[in-house]
Model the fold of this input.
Amino acid sequence: MSADTDDGPRRIGLLKGIELTPRQILYLIVGVLALFAVPEIEGLSSSLRTQTIYLGLCWGIAALGLNLLLRHTELVSFGHAAYFGGGAYGSALAAQYAGVEEALLLVLIGVLLATSLAVAIGWLVSGYLDIYFSLLTLAFNQLLFAIVMGSTDILGSDDGLAVRPQSDLIRPTLFGMEWSSRQFEVLSYYILIVVLLVMLFVTWRLVQSPFGRALDAIGQDRTRARFIGIPVKRYVWTTIVISGVYGGLAGGLYSISLLHVRPNGTLFVLRSGEILFMAILGGFQTLLGPIIGGIVLTYMLTELRFATEYWEFLTGFMLFLVVFLLPNGVIGSLPAILGGIKDRARNPGLVAEDASFIAALVGSKLRDAARTTKVLLFGVK
Done:
């Protein structure tokens, strides 16, 4: 079904509640096909690896869950690695101690553990605001990390746990069948793409629902939201639990790919910071932003090290440029960038104005940095 409107281009209804323009549908099809084509074109470039994209999408799903809090309730969580790690460790524990062999069942068990953590943590922190909420989420994340690090017998401490059943299997089964390493990698990647599309659809419907509008009201003004009858604490708690489901799902999928989980890679507090930064990097005001942020940051952290020994500096510098030049994130800044390109194509004189503006801006920033350095080092203003 399609509709012509006086306010904009024709929109086509794909599913209930989702209407896209023909151009948006084209972008959607190209994006999905590109994701599905990754295993087939992996050999074209040494820097394009299916597992890197897989891990980036896992972290992106976790960032998508965090974005429900960040974008709609305006709460900043520094503890989302707790749910990601909960999902990963839930899968590992089920494989190690319960003998579960099916990969999808391992992921489901990981989701259940992460959701249980989100229920408990959410009930304790949902009544707090701003920095208190952030610090409490950080504290619970660090508490879980300390528990895992201190448990040598059950959780493996710093060595972590293998996600392999206690049998002759090298890796879990998929759909009850054993697969070779490459087959398992490709099948689990395709399963992840399907899960990602489902989660994006669920998120879209969620934010467009009355529940999503209530979250927006809470983010704008909690006091006013209470006055109009919204049970604020219960809604925030529910959002934390939903966000925990995303994190647990991402962690479970992560675990069956690497087949080993360690606390530093899943539960460490810096992982929480990375999840938050992924949402901001891609554009937390958009639906696809956290997913793109997850892919971009994971790629930088895993592939740049093979390109240069200064990969840490280069990663930090590139991220600095993105934040400095694209304050709305990669996806959030695209409309302005494309509009600017069209304007400059029609009026070349704008390019010179932009160059002058950028030069003046950079010069101002350098002067400020020099002045600050002089004050700090020599006490001279």
Remarks:
- Residues 1-44 form one domain.
- Residues 1-6 have pLDDT under 50 and may be disordered.
- The first strand starts at residue 2 and ends at 3.
- The chain has three domains: 1-44, 47-332, 347-378.
